[in-house]
Amino acid sequence: MCGRYSIRKPVSKTADLVKTNIKVEDTDNYNAHPSQQLPIIKSYTNGKTLELCEWGLVPSWSKKLDKFSPLINARKETLMEKVTFKNLIQTSRCIVPADGYYEWKREDKKKIPYYFSKEDDEIMFFAGIHQNNQFCIITREATEKISTIHHREPMIINQSQINNYLNIKKDAMEILNSIKPPNLKFHEISKDVNNPINNDPSIINPVK
Question: How far is Cα 192 from Cα 202, in angstroms, rounded to an integer?
Answer without folding.
Answer: 9
